[in-house]
Specification:
By secondary structure, the chain is mainly alpha-helical. Strands 1-3-2 form a three-stranded antiparallel β-sheet. The radius of gyration is 19 Å and the shape is globular.
Length: 152
């Protein structure tokens, strides 16, 4: 095996490790959010992304990027959440083709209730993953991505 082959295998191994950790986290979050709130992980992600807008809204394409979904999947998801009264869609005043999405008070309340369950499931899963030798270094590196600051 040459140097290039070794580098490709190292990257592939890293990708498999990342996928394994993501799978563990996704499964735990899905169970916790479904059991307590009838929310999927991607639905939670959409509500959480909208909550960070500080009372503002997002265009559908921004929401699609935030949730890592296609435009059509985002439209279906937004329709489901709108049917549940968790968010609303509004036409953009300066571009009639643009559609904004924002949380309703019910959506904000559900997110507020679901967030501690989400965070606890995430914390427990990451703690569990640190016991797996292949996953521990990746979990430990997550804290370095966005370190907490006392002034933040």
């Amino acid at each position: 095996m040459g140097i290039r082959d070794d580098a490709a295998e190292i990257r592939a191994r890293g990708w498999r490790t990342l996928a394994a950790l993501h799978g563990m986290i996704d499964t735990a979050l899905e169970k916790a959010l479904q059991a307590g709130f009838k929310l999927s992980v991607v639905e939670y992600t959409v509500l959480e992304a909208l909550s960070r807008q500080d009372g503002w809204h997002m265009r559908m394409q921004q929401l699609a990027r935030a949730a890592a979904l296609s435009s059509s999947a985002t439209t279906r998801l937004v329709s489901r959440l709108e049917d549940r009264g968790l968010l609303g869609r509004y036409l953009c005043a300066d571009d009639r083709r643009g559609i904004y999405t924002e949380l309703t008070p019910e959506g904000r309340d559900l997110l507020t209730a679901a967030r501690p369950v989400h965070d606890a499931a995430l914390e427990a899963t990451l703690a569990e993953a640190t016991a797996v030798p292949e996953l521990a270094p990746l979990v430990e590196s997550l804290a370095d991505l966005h370190p907490l600051h006392a002034d933040a």
